[in-house]
Specification:
Blueprint lengths: L4 E6 L5 E6 L2 H30 L3 H29 L5 H5 L2 E5 L7 H9 L1 H4 L6 H9 L6 H6 L1 E5 L15 H4 L11 H13 L5 H15 L12 H15 L1
Antiparallel strand pairs: 1-2, 2-4, 3-4
Helix pairs in contact: 1-2, 2-4, 9-10, 9-11, 10-11
Length: 247
């Protein structure tokens, strides 16, 4: 059984973003899956080298060196590649519903991922990740040493989220609803909606959905004129468009 640790981050839009931090148990289970995949890859590479170099002792020495280099690159590069290209999720993390993000809630970047995974060489000491586990247990944000240095968190993903359209920008001539009464929307509230729309692509899917839902929930009751029960992001886009039309 693993108790949930929650972290609340204040966003520029004035909405608190709540993240559920991953604990030692779920992270260890994810690591086992990833290490099993890496082991299979490394064994397959070793077998391929063995068949390729034949019985030559000199060639065999080169093969061992190549196997060691590939093993090190795989140890570090596997996580970096998946975290950067797969939204912070290795296969093990995806299976356990985990994701690596920056401390701001934004997607992890290549430099941050490279730092956190390079320092795994220290977290793994003296064996079985004892340094990393100790760091997670004593840290307020469940961070191992690599996370501290890179400014990253491992969080749990929300499950069963309703589908959200990935809208990039609003089109005022088409989307602005003429019947809406937006006079009750203040300058600060409009700035919060526009700020979210401007930086939503830099957020993780869960953070993006949560912020859009909370912003729309606050602003929707203040808009008159038959506001439809539409998706949160679409509502915010149409609200910004309506205010721009009336400016």
């Amino acid at each position: 059984m693993e108790f949930e640790d929650r972290l609340t981050i204040a966003t520029p839009e004035g909405v608190d973003l709540e993240l559920t931090l991953a604990g030692v148990g779920s992270r260890f289970a994810s690591a086992l899956v990833d290490y099993a995949i890496q082991l299979v890859i490394l064994l397959a590479f070793g077998l391929a080298l063995g068949y390729g170099v034949g019985l030559s002792p000199r060639a065999g020495g080169y093969a061992v060196a190549a196997w060691i280099v590939v093993g090190f690159v795989l140890f570090v590069g596997y996580d970096v590649a998946f975290e950067v290209l797969a939204s912070g999720r290795t296969p093990g993390k995806r299976l356990n519903g985990l994701r690596v993000v920056l401390e701001t809630g934004a997607p992890v970047t290549f430099p941050a991922s490279a730092v956190r995974n390079a320092l795994r060489l220290i977290d793994i000491l003296p064996g079985a990740y004892l340094v990393g586990i100790a760091s997670i247990l004593v840290s307020e944000r469940n961070q191992r040493l690599g996370d501290h240095a890179a400014g990253t968190l491992v969080v749990r993903e929300r499950k069963a989220l309703p589908p959200e359209p990935r809208l990039r920008s609003y089109r005022r001539p088409v989307d602005a609803p003429a019947a809406w009464d937006t006079s009750a929307i203040g300058t600060d509230e409009l700035a919060a909606a526009r700020g979210f729309l401007a930086r939503r692509d830099a957020l993780t899917e869960n953070a993006r959905f949560q912020l859009a839902t909370e912003l729309a929930g606050r602003l929707r009751p203040k808009v008159g004129g038959g506001v439809a029960d539409e998706a949160p992001e679409l509502f915010l886009e149409r609200l910004a468009a309506a205010k721009a039309e009336r400016a």
